[in-house]
Design a protein that fits this description.
two-stranded antiparallel ribbon; 2 strands; 296 residues; single chain
């Protein structure tokens, strides 16, 4: 990935971090532990790829960032963060390291971690449903799309499949199901919502949603490869939790080389969908390439 895209991603990440700091509610003293836990995980860092994807997609159709788009971008990161908190719990992956720091339940205890995740999910929909100047029909459509992709037909459904034991004869189908939903769904939702909020046509929204689905699937394949081959100090998280929990991984099922080939093919197919946008699509193309070139 070129230096220009890396620099742009870093600038966008810092902007999103500022938004996130402003979106958290003022703590109330008697329930302060949950506010502390929310802040701990939400502001712990991270790539902020989902809000950046949302904003970058919106910019294909209109300049600037409206308050509504900012609220949706923050809401998406709140959903992602809640999913990480719950994914790390002893009843799920039982991880003790996330983004280079102890996981939420290690710092605040399991009960507060669960409630912090619940609170971030609720905050996400409070942010995205706030009355705003603009097209309420688009707002509702984007909100509904994110709710579907985040729920039992999307991310939660993928997590359910991930914690079940797959049969030997359907491992390939199972791992694709898991990755397209557990990780791919929120990435797809970020792109789709950005297009919807910017006023893209139904056909454009469908094409961009397909782009998001492809890069989301590729992102998780690469995540599996990094966990299989990578360094926990670089990744900022444990690299043995899938093996420890006997979870399916793409290289484990398909083999390392096939996993690499499929991730590259997905990104090539995704980038081809952006050809109608010419130079306006360069940021999204750069993010797509980053998905397979990253080392963390």
């Amino acid at each position: 990935m070129g230096m220009k895209i890396r620099d742009r991603l870093e600038r966008e990440r810092r902007v999103v971090n500022d938004w996130l700091g402003d979106c958290l509610p003022e703590p109330e003293e008697l329930s302060r532990p949950v506010f502390d836990a929310m802040s701990y995980s939400l502001l712990a860092g991270g790539k902020r790829l989902r809000p950046i994807l949302m904003v970058s997609t919106s910019r294909l159709f209109r300049d600037g960032v409206s308050p509504l788009l900012r609220n949706f971008a923050c809401g998406m990161e709140c959903i992602h963060t809640y999913s990480l908190i719950h994914d790390d719990l002893p009843s799920m992956d039982d991880d003790d390291l996330r983004r280079g720091r102890p996981t939420s339940h290690k710092v605040f205890g399991e009960a507060i971690a669960i409630l912090a995740g619940d609170a971030l999910l609720t905050l996400a929909f409070e942010l995205m449903s706030r009355p705003a100047l603009g097209d309420e029909k688009r707002q509702l459509k984007a909100l509904n799309s994110i709710a579907v992709y985040a729920g039992s037909l999307g991310m939660v459904g993928g997590q359910i499949a991930d914690i079940r034991e797959a049969q030997d004869d359907d491992m390939a189908e199972s791992i694709r199901f898991i990755h397209k939903r557990k990780t791919g769904a929120l990435i797809r939702a970020s792109v789709e919502a950005g297009a919807v909020l910017a006023g893209a046509s139904d056909e454009e929204c469908e094409t961009l949603s397909e782009f998001g689905g492809k890069i989301g699937f590729a992102f998780q394949i690469v995540d599996d490869l990094l966990e299989h081959l990578g360094d926990s100090d670089v990744l900022g998280k444990n690299t043995d939790s899938d093996a420890r929990n006997q979870r399916l991984t793409y290289p484990g099922v398909m083999g390392v080389e096939r996993a690499k080939d499929e991730s590259r093919d997905l990104i090539c197919d995704a980038i081809s969908l952006l050809e109608p946008y010419g130079k306006d699509g360069e940021m999204l193309k750069g993010i797509a390439r980053y998905f397979v070139e990253r080392v963390s």
